[in-house]
Amino acid sequence: MRGAGARYLTVAGFADGVRLSVPAIPVMALFGTAFGAFAAQKGLGLLEATLMSTLMFAGASQFVATEMWTEPITVSVVTTLCLITAAVNMRFMLMTASLRPWLGGLPARQTYPAMALLTEPGWLIAMRYRAAGGTDHSIVLSSGIALWLIWIASTVLGYLLGAVVADPRRYALDLVMPVFFTVMLVPLWSGPRRAIAWVAAGVVAIVMAEYVSGSWYIIAGTVAGTLSAGWLDERA
Amino acid sequence: MSVLEPLGATLLALLAMGVTTFLMRAGGYWLMAHVPLTARVHRMLEALPGALVVAIVLPIAVKTGVIAFLAITAAAVVMVLRHNGFLAVVSGLIVAALARSMGM
Fold it and tell me: What is the dihedral of CA A151, A152, A157, A159, to 10 degrees?
């Protein structure tokens, strides 16, 4: 329990968490707006898009799920959507795992809600706060709630904007997803050797997209990249 | 495959995806206390987001054509130079919109 800080959620910690979230708001709001607009273009309902943001709070997987959304919704459609969601969101496991050493001594009913609302910016906020000597774990939950509310509100805003744009191609809105994902890729760069996984993923995905229908190319590319990373040794 | 109840099907799909996402978030936290992550598994999990993003973006870019490559290149360059996600996304979209307005 050494260094775990207060056992209970505190008002001061909640306020701190909200304050620490402020710098992350513009990108969160832009991403949420972009998702809302994308969902509107793809023919999802406003309620569906808002519910998706509320229940998932995971932008990358929401884009992919919206792209793959097909009616009528059968058992196999739901299964495919869940598989792809799991693949896209597996990265969260690393983030929440890295918070265990700090939060592990706390009661589960306090930590799991915070984990449920964890995103990349929220995780960064928590890690920086902890690295700077912070001990109040309330900031993890409160920054999560703050960013979650921004996410839901911006989804609604984006949807309403997206629904009135008559020609989304003119404003390049059809390219929102690839552009966003590329921007997400830049901070993940950790040298040419690690990028072998990216090359493997790209090649397999392009070939699969050409010859196999559906969105299996995403899974195939990801598996190829991930496996190649696992089988490379760690000398570099 | 059976068609699920139309009214509830959408909600069910959304709920299932929400639960899946929660399991991923809770899973890392839970696993950390019960299973030691080997170096190889850690390396694979680390490589996963990048591989996934590439696998999503590249086929779309190939299908969309030159404009898409212009947009993602502009976005990547701005991101590398300025470390500002907002600016990078907006730049990418502006480049694509301009290229289209010029008839590309």
Answer: 110
